[in-house]
Amino acid sequence: MPWLVLTRTGSPAQAGLVGAVALSAAVPALVAGGPLIDRWGRRRVAAGADLLSAAAVAALPLLDLTVGLSLVSTLALVALGALFDGPGAAARESSRPDVAVAGGSTVDDVNARGEAVEELGEIAGSALAGVGIGIVGALASLWVAAGLLLGAAAVTWFTLPRDPARAGRSEPYLHAARAGLVAVWQDRTVRAAALLGTVAMVFFAPLTLILTAHLAARGAPGALAAVTAALGAGAIMGALGYGALASRVRRRPVLLSGLALAACGLALMALLPSTAVLATLALATGVALGPLGPALAAVVQARAAPELRGRVVSTQWSLALVASPLGVLGAGLVLESAGPAAALLTAACGLLATAVFAAASPGLRRIETHHLTATEQEAS
Question: Exposed, middle or buried by CB within 10 Å (0-12, 13-18, 19+), for 210?
C-alpha cells in the first residue's frame, strides 16, 4: 500500500500516512475486539476477520476499476482492513493452547512454530509483493492478497479446534472489555510478561530502519537484503530451536540470556563492520531473540483464564503495536543527530536494560510450566 500511494502521488508523506492510519485503527480495534473473541469464539473471529479483510483489500482494485481510487477512499479501506486484522491475529494466537491440547503438543512448541511461520510469512509476503509489483503492478497484486486471505479463512475454519460452548448470559460489552484490562493488570506475571515484550519491542523494532539508513549511505541495497534476510532467518531458527528444546530448558534463563546476547550482537553491529560480518551478527541476534515471542506468549496464554484469553492476548498485542512506532520514532531522532552507530548502541543498551528488568522482576520468577495453569500442564 505505501508503494501504491507513493507511485500514484509522488508524496512520501502521504505514503507514510497509510501506515499511520493502519496503526491508529489497529490499536483500538485490538482492545475492542478482545471481548468479541471471548464471546463469539476464537475460530469464528479468526476466520471472519480474514474474510472481512479480504473484502477490504479486494475493494481497492474494484473501486479503482469503477469510480476511481482517491487518497481518502484508500485510507478509509486501509483503516477498515486494519480494524479486522488485529482481532483476527489475536484470535489465532489465543487459540494456540487449544491447538496444543488437540494435537498432543506443548504450548511452547505450538507458539514457537506459530511465531516462526509468521516470520516466514512476512519474508515470503514481502518477496511475493515485490514480484507482483514488478509483473502486474501494485494495484493488481492486491487481488493475490485478497485470495490469500480467503485461503487463510478456509484453513482456519477447517483446521482449528471448535470453539467451546458458552453457557449463560453474555456480560455487557464495556464490562467485558474492562475485565480483560483488569486481568492483565492484576496478574503480576501477565503484567510483567506484557511489559517485557513491549519494552523489548521499543528497542528491537527500529533495527531495520537503522540498518537501512546505514547501508543506504553505503550505496549497498543488496547488502540490506542480505542482512535483513539473515535477521529473519535467525528469528525463525531461534523460535523453532526453542520449541524443540522447551521441555528440557527453563524459560527464565532462556529469556535473560537471549536478551543479553542480542544486546551484545547490536553492540558489535555498532562497529559497522563489513556486510558479511554484519549479516552474521544479524543472524546471531535473530537466533537470540527468537525464543522471546513464543516464551512470553505461552506464559500469557497459560496464566489467562480460558474465558478471558482473547481479551488478555488482545491487550498484549495492542501494547506491542504502540511500542513499535515509538521505538522507530526515537531511533529516527538518534539517526539524524548522531548516526547509525549511536542508534545501534542505544538499542543495545536498551535491550541490556530490558534483560536487567527481566532478571529483577518478581512477576517473571514464576513462569515455568509447573508454576502455571492446568491448561498448560495438560498440553505438556
Answer: buried
Distances (CA, A) of 169 to 44, 165, 166: 19, 12, 9
Cell of 274: 563489513
d(CA 105, CA 97): 9
Domains and CATH numbers, the chain: 1-161 (1.20.1250), 187-369 (1.20.1250.20)
List of residues 6+ apart from 213 with CB closer than 8 A: 335, 340, 343
What are the grid coordinates assigned to 38, written together?
471471548
**Predicted TM-score of the model (pTM):** 0.84
- Amino acid of residue 268: L
pLDDT at 111: 95
Residue 12 has a pLDDT of 65
pLDDT score at 375: 47
Point out the residues of the chain with pLDDT beneath 50.
168, 374-380
CA pseudo-torsion sign 120, 121, 125, 126: negative
Which residues are CB-neighbours of 95 under 8 A, at least 6 positions away? 42, 43, 46, 160, 161
Q: What is the pLDDT at residue 372? A: 56
Q: Quote the CA–CA distance of 60 and 142 in Å, as a whole number.
A: 8
Residue 166, pLDDT score: 66
Supply the DSSP string of 25-49, one letter for each residue. HHHHHHHHHHHHHHHH-HHHHHHHH
